Amino acid sequence: MHSNSEQAGGPNADALLAAVGELVEQSLTPLPDRDVVELMRGVERAARMLVAVQHRVLIEVDSRSIPADTGAKTIKLFLMETLRLSNVEAGARVRAATRVGTFCDMSGAELAPELPCTAIALRRGDISVEHARRITAVMVRVPRGVDAADREAAEKLLAEFAATGSPDDIGKVGQSILAHLDPDGRITDEDDRARMRGIRIGRQRPDGMSPISGEIDPVLRALLDPVLAKYARPGVANPEDPTSPGAGVDRADPQLIIAAAQRDTRTAAQRTHDAFTLLLRELVDTNMIGAHRGIPVTTVLTIRLEDVEQLSGVATTATGGTVAIPEALRLAERSRPYLAVFDHAGLPLHFGRMRRLASPAQRLSLIAALSGCSRPGCDAPASLCAVHHVHDYSKGGPTDIENLVLACDHCHSLINDSEAGWKTVVLGDDSEFAGRTAWIAPEHIDPTGTPRVNHRHRAGELLAQIVADIHARRERERGAHRRGRRPGDIAA
Ligand SMILES: [Zn+2]
Asked: I need a labelling partner for 284 at 20 to 30 A (CA). Which of 7, 14, 260, 417 fits?
């Protein structure tokens, strides 16, 4: 039905690219001020309309199952691979298309978009995708019990407001609309709450801290309140006060708790934070959570020997986080995590072909050596990975450390002998990454079939390589200069 090149006259981006190409080149200097501003408005409108076009194409690609045919598990992963979008950008684009894009039913008839007025405004270029995103954020909070006419009116109102106002103000307008729709919060039912619940733990920042936000439902709240009443009290679980009681607060002397509370200068937020630390440490230490992927649910810390000696640097965890060395050693003292100390000489263990599943010791050393999934571009940390045999076990590949590599479940499932499958190889001595496992992408992603290693978990390595290349080039240029030639002559 969808043959490749028969419809030569169909929609394509050629004219668009030509027009944009001209605008990029043309001089703006001769334009009077008013025309420059007019141009700015026109370009903004066009960019907004293009977002609607992106949604159309995205929905078309998805409806033809193109992502599944090429091995990408979801449309989002397909966008990340073919357009080189970030995880965040690809996710946002798919969500926006779902809300304001036009889908078709089985017979090919067009269905009304979920947010019809917002969709029309975006298509006209009256609002931006950021406006649409903020409208969505308000509309998901409209309780299911609100009748359809009110819901439609709310969306229409928001879209009209968006066409004249800033995205920043939509939240405020939304608040008053929501207050009007459900003044005493009684229409909100269990399904609404289930839809809204969520805790987001953001990426760890370079300073070691991670943002957390979200909304919890009444059940979690009911479980949490008594726990916090006990452990987030002033004087309890205070890391700055060695005499402050922790989990054993029940058995502590009441006078001691009162004294500790008087010394306690933490904010309520800090006490809540410390209560969570205490709670999770208790859970992990008492082994209540059991095992996950063959190793106990506990912190796996990887430390380089030189860092321990100098009490500097960071330990990495199996979940891809970092902990400063002094804190890591304190954690190790108190909660017995798995500790892998490396002298940075490479893979430390060798096991014969003993069994199908890698042993905990092998998994730990893989985590320490590789820190995460080995497919180029994947940033799944080691805790989300399975052990993969580079030479297939069923074809005689040994369960040796040299033949094992970490791959997350998704990447693991991409490895197969079909045309759309990925392959893995161990790089030989002639490679700069000798001994590492490289992946070969299927033809639709990398037509050259070059084996590539994953640098995502070793950002420093790639940077070092780039710096080395720059140094080498400068050295060559200096050499050429000394011989009285210009650098450009070298290749000739
Ligand atoms: Zn992966």
From this structure: 260
CA atoms of 63 and 66, how far apart (whole Å):
8
Residues 6+ apart with CB under 8 A from 216: 197, 199, 224
- pLDDT tens string 206-257: 888 899 999 888 778 878 887 888 889 899 989 888 888 887 888 888 888 8
Phi-psi region of 420 (alpha: psi -120 to 50; beta: other; left: phi over 0): alpha
> Coil, helix or strand for 78?
helix
Q: Beta-strand (E) ranges in 325-466?
A: 338-342, 385-389, 404-408, 423-426, 437-440
Dist. CA 293–CA 56, nearest whole Å: 41
How far is residue 163's CA from residue 393's CA, in Å, rounded to a whole number?
60
Q: How far is CA 57 from CA 46, 64, 79, 107, 165, in A?
A: 16, 11, 11, 19, 28
Q: Give 284 Cα–ligand 1 centroid separation in angstroms.
A: 27
Q: Which residue has the higher pLDDT, 36 or 6?
A: 36
How many degrees, rounded to 5, is the angle at CA 477 between CA 475 and CA 481?
115
* 300-304 and 338-342 beta bridge pairing: parallel
Mean pLDDT of 341-370: 44
Q: 81 C-alpha to center of ligand 1: Å?
A: 13
pLDDT of 444 over the 70 cut:
yes
Q: Say which DSSP state 377 is in.
A: T
Q: What angle do CA 340, 345, 350 make, to 5 degrees?
A: 70
Measured in angstroms, how far is the CA atom of residue 201 from the centroid of ligand 1? 20
Instruction: Return the structure tokens found at 98.
Output: 């779902």
399 Cα to the center of ligand 1, angstroms: 20
* Whole-number Cα distances in Å, 247 to 108, 244, 288, 451: 62, 10, 15, 52
How far apart are the CA of 10 and the centre of ligand 1, in A?
37
Ligand 1 center to residue 404 CA distance, Å? Answer: 15
Beta bridge partners of 477: none
Predicted TM-score (pTM) of the model is 0.54
Distances (CA, A) of 381 to 1, 142, 264, 474: 41, 37, 37, 37
Question: What are the tokens at 87?
Answer: 């995880």
Q: What is the token pair recorded at 408? A: 């997350």
More confident residue, 382 or 34: 34
Q: How far is the CA of 356 from the centre of ligand 1 (A)?
A: 21
Is the pLDDT assigned to residue 59 strictly greater than 60? yes
